[in-house]
Amino acid sequence: MNNNYKLIFTGPVGAGKTTAISSISDTPPVTTDAVATDMTQNIKETTTVAMDYGIMQLGGGERLHLYGTPGQERFNFMWDILTEGGIGLILLLDNTRADPFQDMHFFLNSFREFIDSTHLAIGITQTDRCATPRVDQYQQQLKGTGLKVPVFEIDARERRDVVVLIEALLFSLAPDLKVSA
Amino acid sequence: MANNSLNPKMLRVNTIGMDQRARDALDLFFRNICHEDYSLKEGDDVDVTIIDMDAVNAEQLRAEHFERHPARPTILISLLEIEVDNGVFLKKPLQPGELKAALERLRENIATSDSTDAPEGVAAAHSSTPEVRMSKPTPWTSSAKQSEQMADPAPQKQSRSGEIIPLFPDVLQKGSVATPSWEAPTPPAGEKKKEKAAFLYDPMNHLQGYIEKAYRIAIEQNRNVLLEGPWRPIIIMPETREIWVEQSHAHLYALAVMPVHAEDVTIRVLDEGELPPEQSGSIQPLEPFLWKLAVRTARGRIPAGTDLRAPVSLRHWPNLSRLMPIRHGLRISALWTKQPVSLVETAALLDIAPKYIFSFYSAARALDLIEQRERGGGERDTKTSSPQTPEHRGFLSKILARLRGRGR
Fold first, then answer.
1. What is residue B163's predicted lDDT score, i.e. its pLDDT?
2. B6: burial class by Cβ within 10 Å (0-12, 13-18, 19+)?
3. What is the ipTM of this complex?
4. Relative to the CA of A72, which of A26, A44, B241, B379 has its CA 20 to 30 Å away?
């Protein structure tokens, strides 16, 4: 019996992947942050160079592994490895970035095979700092991709927000899913 | 008998056992819908008292009230039919027509008792107006037969469209969401309209419909639009998808269930640069406001004309993290973005009560997210899940349980 399913968090630098994993992980996530030495240092002091890892204990020895991909494109080679065995993808997009639509399309293209075989939910972060683009405008952008996926504004620090996004992903996989006893 | 110094026609009313939200709704009803024929008062110098018999200590409050004012015309309201030996009884949810009829009848009784010196309460109790459930001189208990005999006539309960509109159901009716069955029993010919109205409503009889209409105009013309009616001014701003309201949100949501007539409403496209005053009111995102207003207005119903068996789908997911939660909203969204499914099928596939589906449908429709096809649009896939092993599904269920604070 496979008791090692994974949930993958991806998105550009500073979108809140590490924070989102922290908000739902049972243990403090293992991060591989390093001092930023490239353009990233303009955004934050440290950045994830390999991956973030958290865990959610489900009982009976089963667990959900939470993986956050590194944000920089030069680590793309890791993404295929990380997604193996994944139940779905959470894409977090930073609304304050110069072109969040371009970010979205980049990650959709990069993970398209994985998305098509599982499912996707998108969280828009930092909307308190930058209100546009609005969620409906992201949905407009998605029209051309053939994807009808949940896109929610979220605050990655708020467990409630992260939970509703993951629940949307789970119900996208199986709308008739019920809570197990 | 109390006298009205301002408006001789105005009937002064106080309440006992009613919470502030319900009082606010009543106050709005008197001011906006009844054109100030009645006035809600704080003190005890009033013409009529309304007692909420669903209050925790209602019996004690009633006893104290009648001890102090044995002759005061009194309306008792409750979810359950209760024994009334003094005063007028109205069953919740209150209907605007019923309440007005009761108040008008009491007004007549007050006038009669003024001229005859008869005790007020007795006058009320002995009146036999057919418009409202009047108590009899002797105590009575509810029974099906009695209810039939005292059935409310339609005219007072219906809006101009014929819709039955409960008054303040959120506030005064516990478990207020309608729980319709899919196939209502065939009513007698004359009752058909009334049965149908149990789970149908017309948004255009309410504030919701006019905000939707103003929003459409604003989007079409890409200009701010001013909406005026039995409420303080509302401005829709299409560019930012925001709404400016001068009235408190609580008041506006209380207004949601009140009937609105087209002739009382004006919609005006504002000149470019014409903005809401900065010093008053508040601005907020339009969609969460309209979603909540639709939920409050619909209360588990769907707009009239909705085909229960026509396939429904969503243009896209609503931004559910920032909208008023509707139970099972995530499941319904997931299903309706996956494939078109009728309302009837949705209930069966997801095994959830129609009231939640109706609420979600009404709210999503208000945001123009609903696409509904004609019936018989070909074979559809009625499987709700992606192909998954039972093991995989079990695992997903455990994640869900864990996220909701169970399992582990």
1. 33
2. exposed
3. 0.90
4. A26
pLDDT tens by residue, A54-79: 999 988 888 999 999 876 565 566 77
Tokens 């789908």 label which residue?
B313
Please state, in angstroms and rounded to a whole number, the distance separating the CA atoms of residues B9 and B388: 70
Residues 140-169 of A with CB under 8 A from B: 142, 148-154, 161, 163-168
CA distances to A93, B2, B101, B330 from A153, in Å:
10, 56, 48, 15
Cβ proximity of A79 and A69 under 8 Å: yes
User: How far does the CA of residue B397 sit from the closest CA of chain A (Å)?
Assistant: 5
Q: What is the CATH number of the domain that holds A63?
A: 3.40.50.300
3-class DSSP state of A35: strand
Q: Checking DSSP bridges between strand A86-94 and strand B312-314, what pairing results, if any?
A: unpaired
Q: C-alpha dihedral over A18, A23, A27, A29, to 10 degrees?
A: 0
Could you tell me which chain B residue has the CA closest to the CA of A153?
B321
Q: B-chain residues within 8 Å CB-CB of A167?
A: 330, 400, 403
Taking only the tens place, the pLDDT of each residue in B217-252 is 999 999 999 999 988 899 999 999 999 998 888 788
Domain annotation covers residue A126: yes
Q: Which domain holds residue A157?
A: 4-173
- Is residue A12 included in any domain, yes or no? yes
Q: Is B146 exposed, middle or buried (0-12, 13-18, 19+ CB in 10 A)?
A: middle
Judge contact between B210 and B268, C-beta under 8 A.
no
Asked whether residue A178 is assigned to any structural domain, the reply reads: no
Set out the domains of chain B in order of their start, with CATH numbers. Answer: 11-165 (3.40.50.2300), 203-295 (no CATH)
Q: What is the pLDDT of residue A130?
A: 95
Contacts of B155 (CB under 8 A, 6+ apart): B97
| B112 token code pair | 């009669």
